[in-house]
Amino acid sequence: MKRMLLGRLAALVPTVLLASFVVFMLIQLAPGDPSITLAGENATAERIEEIRRSLGLDRSLIEQYLTWLSHAVRGDLGKSIITQESIAAAIGRTLPITLQLVFGALVVAIVFGVIAGVASARRADTATDAVIASVSSAGAAMPSFWLGLVLVSIFALGLDWLPATGFVSLAADPVRALRHLVLPSVALGAVGAAEIARQLRGVLIEILASDYIRTLRAKGLSESRIVWIHALRGAAVPLVTIIGLQVSRLLGATVVVEAVFGIQGIGTLVVSAANNRDYYVVEGVVVVMALIVILVNFAVDVSYRISDPRIR
Amino acid sequence: MMAERPALVVRNLEVSFLTVDGEVQAVRDVSFEVGRGEIVGLVGESGSGKSATALAIMGLLPVVSSRVRGSAMVSGVDMLALSPRQLARVRGRDMGMIFQEPMSALDPLFRIGDQIAETVRAHQRVSRRAAAARAVEILGEVGIPDAASRSRAYPHQLSGGMRQRVMIAMALVSEPAVLIADEPTTALDVTVQAQILGLLRRLSRDHGTAVVLITHDLGVVAETCSRIHVMYSGEIVEACGVDEALLAPEHPYTSALIQCIPRAGRHRQPLHSIPRRRGSSPDVRPSGCRFLPRCAHAAEICKAPQPLLDLGDRAVRCVRHDQLALPGAVERVPQ
After folding, report:
1. Which residues of A116-154 are buried (b: 16+ CB within 10 A; e: fewer)?
2. Is the Cβ pair B119, A221 closer than 8 Å?
3. Interface ipTM
4. Is the pLDDT of residue B331 over 80?
5. pLDDT, tens digit, for every residue of B7-21?
6. Hey, what domains does chain A have and what are their CATH numbers?
7. Was domain B8-225 assigned CATH 3.40.50.300?
8. In chain B, positions 279-298, which contact chain A (CB-CB < 8 Å)?
């Protein structure tokens, strides 16, 4: 087991390298370059060329990539070309904010998704099932920025129950942090909840019709114990897979929701960096994101082995 | 003095399934009883209604798509009159059930000891530790060697025979009055089958458990049961002691089933088979004897509805039963 895990971890290294290389090349494909931004308006071509040279942008892409990589492996992601802030520091400042938001959205997705999925599987093909199915189709189809705007106009501007914008760290002030977290988490997590509900319904219906569930009924277990302990445990592998996919999706979708709720997270950082062609900030953020996604997938993989004794 | 009340009394059981084409009757007019410590066989081919009978008694048929009428008294309580919640309380405590496929009938994700302990705790207020100890004890009783360490195994780590022993342990851990065994040995090889049947006999005798043994295999019945109920097309067609059934069957279907058992000493003879079913699906059943289309002894009188005739020590659903000297497991010698 331990050996298998180490092997899997080692296999992640080439994946991260490949991701960092592809992203590095892709950003350069976008037209424009940071020296134009830095040179300001009405700059001469010579001035722009001078800045390009000073930034090392005149060298070959491979050369630039290898230089970046040699620093990155030592934990040095460089400095923002535009703001001169250390990129590691900028990520350190914004990543926890985004992770808190993603975590909130994940809680919303799992809690609502599992409850709705279990309810509709237990009452398959009834009115309850149909209502849940149509609500979750609507949830899956709704863009999160639009849902965010609707939530803000109802619960913040209309009823004044919750703040419309802003962010507070959970560590600093849990109560205020939760009040700020509710609306963006719901906006971001709704799609995931719908997805989890629909997938879980299908998996559970199949499990609830299986022979071993009949045995559990025959030995006199209560229906709720059968569903929540045995059937849900049987659904763990597909459930964890969907949740893992949701984490990747949420990390991407957070950009839009951060904009709606005025949250200065990593999405905001990467969007403004991309607009300014601040190559190394984009590169740093994307590599960190890729690393998180890869680690989540790894954790999902490990959890399969823990939850199913047959593949241990 | 009154005779001891039988552990299981089934009266006028009727099961039908709701399909897109309407209600289809799967079991009709089934009545039987099983005494304490007795093993009674329920025999018939696929689709004869024997499993539907068992599942109906256990209350395990899907509520929305089936209808059950009649009564099934276990220790004086009618199982068919209970609410789902009340049923969950008596299932596993007053009656247990084991299934055909030990491979898929156990939860693959839980240790077998935990699955048994869970059953104990569903019915008795005992500590986790006491339930676990009881699980090890019953695993030992059903013949699992080294029960304490085996109780920590997962189902996939056990052989088919061992898994069926686990199923039996789980069904009997609360010492139910009634055990329903639905084809418990069909998925096992012959030597293991004999061991499992021996185990069922011993447990039934030692604990006074009334066992309903459902099978299509007359060999299993001969080895295990004291009485037999032969089912055909949802009805009981013959009910009697096992020896009477095997030596002198009175219903042509029982006799035909016996003839289907391959026997030593009959070289170069084709294996016997009952003619193909014609018109026996529930919606086009004949109004008279349901076996008529396949019966070698059919006569005009068989087209009338056939009641189950009470002959004292046996019952048979054949109007011509006393005119036919049907062959059993032993050839009759002309005197």
Report:
1. bbbbbbbeeeeeebeebbebbeebeebebbebbeebbee
2. yes
3. 0.85
4. no
5. 999 999 999 998 888
6. 2-75 (no CATH), 94-275 (1.10.3720.10)
7. yes
8. none
